[in-house]
């Protein structure tokens, strides 16, 4: 019984440690996304917009999972420097639903004037849609879940062991 308890504690400690790493990374993602709302903005122009397919292999399945990304290329000027980039948001924009990418492409037709939010510390770091969106919270939520599982399994195991 003692060996089983040690194995359970080691597994839970590993889950909590991995969860902690995810929490830290997730907090960085969320804070960066929230900071992007305060970045200065400048006028820009959409140069091109296209839908890009990402084929991601799924272990144990013959067909890959397809994610669709709306890639919007735009340019803007900060001071006298003309900058071009294709970052839409701080968080990832690839989705499994192609209609999501197409809806984004409809919002940004080539030639359209846009407001570009750029990082004042690095003007090449810019986004068209500043702020936190649902994907900004993924790593944080996964990390909290892993920490929660790692913390609760020993409690559940003790409860079951007390019943034996």
UniProtKB/TrEMBL annotation:
Pfam families linked to this entry: DUF3592 (PF12158)
Could you list the residue ranges that cross the membrane?
137-161
Q: Which domain of life is it from?
A: Bacteria
Q: Which UniProt keywords apply?
A: Membrane, Transmembrane, Transmembrane helix
Q: Which residues form the DUF3592 domain?
A: 42-133
Q: What is this protein called?
A: DUF3592 domain-containing protein
Q: Which organism is it from?
A: Myxococcus llanfairpwllgwyngyllgogerychwyrndrobwllllantysiliogogogochensis
Q: What is the lineage of its organism?
A: Bacteria, Pseudomonadati, Myxococcota, Myxococcia, Myxococcales
């Amino acid at each position: 019984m003692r060996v089983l308890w040690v194995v359970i504690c080691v597994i839970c400690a590993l889950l909590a440690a991995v969860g902690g790493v995810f929490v830290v990374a997730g907090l960085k993602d969320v804070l960066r996304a929230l900071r992007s709302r305060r970045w200065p903005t400048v006028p820009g122009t959409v140069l091109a917009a296209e839908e890009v397919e990402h084929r991601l292999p799924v272990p144990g399945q013959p067909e890959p999972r397809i994610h669709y990304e709306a890639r919007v290329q735009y340019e803007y000027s900060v001071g006298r420097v003309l900058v071009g980039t294709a970052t839409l948001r701080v968080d990832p924009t690839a989705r499994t639903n192609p209609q999501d990418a197409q809806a984004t492409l409809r919002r940004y037709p080539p030639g359209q004037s846009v407001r570009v939010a750029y990082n004042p510390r690095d003007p090449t770091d810019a986004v068209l849609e500043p702020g936190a969106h649902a994907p900004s919270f993924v790593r944080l939520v996964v990390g909290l879940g892993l920490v929660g599982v790692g913390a609760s399994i020993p409690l559940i195991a003790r409860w079951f062991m007390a019943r034996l």
